[in-house]
Amino acid sequence: MNTLFDPSLLFIADNDWLDEEKQDDFLAHLLNHLACIDEYDICKIWWTDELQTILVSNPNMHPWYGKDLSNPLVATIYKLFYTRLELIEALDTICQITPPLSITYTNENTHTHFLQLVHSLINQEVACYFCVGISNQLKPLKRYTFSCDCHTNTLIPTLLNNAKEWLTYVDVVEQFFPASLTDFEEKFAKGMEVIKQRAFEDKPYLYSFTFTNNFKRSIVNRRTFKEEIFTAMVRKLVATAAEASRNPLQDECIDAKQKEYRFRVTQRPHSTRIHYKLNDDNTIEFLRYYGEGEHDDGLR
Length: 300
Ligand SMILES: [Zn+2]
What we know:
By secondary structure, this protein is an alpha/beta fold. Helices cover 37% and strands 16% of the residues. Zinc ion (ZN) is lined by residues 95, 119, 122, 148, 150-151.
């Protein structure tokens, strides 16, 4: 499923561009969307030749083009944007949008071409995401609806007010659960990072951590509880000792001499657990994952 970009995400009026604060907000908002889409390789951006023509022939419409390429931020946006385009043939007629989009840029043809692009998606009954500019962000649960007189179906895209909302749509297991020992650390840490931002308000980790080879071998090729493994590990790393000792982790010491502990990943009847070592320097060494039916010594 591809995404639409509200033109006000890409185009800015000269007066706003000359206002340093507005320019910073505009660039950060656009860059965050593009960086997130790139980082998690989420989708392409629907685009048309007509919109492209406005982009290349009217540099004043989008000051992040041309002379501003010397700005590294603009150069990054330029590269990320152009590698993500997917062209679609626009219809000659436009559709309507409710509630209306505010138009913060100067060339209103852009808005017309955008509605022709969306009309084409209605015609092809294509579902999509919709990233909006700062001035077009809606309250939670509110949506934009695209409709027309000539088609009976409407298009209600999945709205993204902010780049951070992309995390909801990342398939963390598919993308980051390691299937082999190669790149294990990097993949696994990235998967945990997504879960931390998505489900734990991006709380800081209270421990640094490493994975033993035993742990890695106990993780790869798992078929069940993959997201639960990520979630339990993040929950452990952001929790104080007192918080971790309670449900659902029930963190407990099983060998004081070896400093070995364990916490629960899933509850009975599917009890699964992770063992770890807490080193003197407060770092956690993940030792092994015990799946369903694999009895760890401490549980006996
Ligand atoms: Zn129509």
